[in-house]
Amino acid sequence: MGLHRPFDGRRAGSRGSWLLLIAGLLALLAAPARAAGDTVLRAGDRLKVMIFETMEVPEPPEVDKPRSGDATAVMQTVYPRVDLSGEYGVEPGGSVVLPLFGGIEAAGRTTAAFRADLGDAFDRMFHRRCNITVSILQRAPVYVVGAVRNPGSFAYVPGLMVLQAVALAGGDNQNGLPAQAIEASREQERRDVARDRLKQLLLRKAALVAERDGAPVAKAADGLRQLVGADGSASLIAGEQRMAQLRLQNLASARATRERAITATQDEIELLKQRMANFDAQIRVRGERLKMMEALFARQVVENERVADVRRDYVDMEGRRRDIEISLLQAEQRLETARKALVQADLERRLTLERDLATVESEADAAERAYHALAATATLMARSSPTAGREGGVLTFEIVRRTIETTDTLRAGELDALEPGDVLRVRLSPPETSRPATASVEKEAALGGAP
User: In this predicted structure, what is the pLDDT of residue 62?
Assistant: First the structure.
């Protein structure tokens, strides 16, 4: 790796430079890879190994050609060893484990050297020659962490540079300041929307509790005061109190209508009972008169037609009494129905009130949790977002590279090449605290892992 200065964020602040880097990375992906025999294998690589065994078999003699001496002609043939061919991975220890051959060292060696070692192992075991092809199916990804917009793992391509890996991760945080500010603003907007929803739910809850307990809305609005303060909640509570009074007036009017209907039915029942009493008295008088006329008719004092007239009057009076009795029964049924309807309306009102209160309480709890989560996220984003004072900071890069024996942390420049499995750490430091790199890659720690 060559010598490079630390990457200054002011030299790469334009969006166009990142677009050029991404275009270069796409060109790099489209470029042909170097020869497979020159590729150095790393732990985590996925290989495809194909083994073709070479055998010599006697050539069948031609019937029309005489043999010359006792020499037997041989013919070489090749057939695939499907029992040994397949896909294999380079283990963390650096070896590739194949059937029959065991582990063969691969990490840190080229594919040509690995192929030669595999051919030697085949020759020692079978005492025959073979042809072997080794191709790399997949390489370990490169990981980008630190002051980038989208940290994560990215597919490795040969020749991948530090700056290209940063571009894959969305650019550094310094150049992503406008986007982060927009995202922080959106998060604050989502928090405000959640706050408004929670405010409305708490106000509705206070109104329902006040209606259930028959108390003013202000006595049940403690949660609303904690959210928006006493001054902010006063106007909301006053408006809701006016609405609550209107609802109570409407309920009182509906109840008064039902009670008036009950009273009217009760008056009708009393009137019908009085009429029945009058008819009962008249029926008794007419019954006595009918008995008297029948006695006179028996002594042949009066004629039969006179008795018949009295009997018809008596029967007519009884019929009219039965009509009044039926009307009385119907009025009593209407009274019972009206009373039950009044009780049912009160029960339904209480049940609806309790159901609405339970629903609002559940929604208010969920809205409160969502609001607190969004508020915490917005606060965290506001604290962690880059500020204008950091625009003059310096980007520094570190590569955490693991080998078979050690894990090293290396200082790197933006044009240094990465290897499969590397972890690229991007840091943004103020100019006065950042120290320039004396070399593009400098070993800082070995055999102990990254600091």
Answer: 60
Q: CA-CA distance, 287 to 332, in Å (whole number)?
A: 29
Q: Is the pLDDT at 413 greater than 90, yes or no?
A: no
Q: Please say whether the beta carbons of 242 and 217 come within 8 A.
A: no
| Distance of alpha carbon 347 from the chain centroid | 40
pLDDT band of residue 73 (cuts 50, 70, 90) is low
How many C-beta atoms lie closer than 10 Å to residue 320's C-beta?
A: 14
- Average pLDDT, stretch 388-396? 59
This prediction's pTM: 0.41
Question: What whole-number distance in Å separates Cα of residue 213 and Cα of residue 211?
Answer: 6
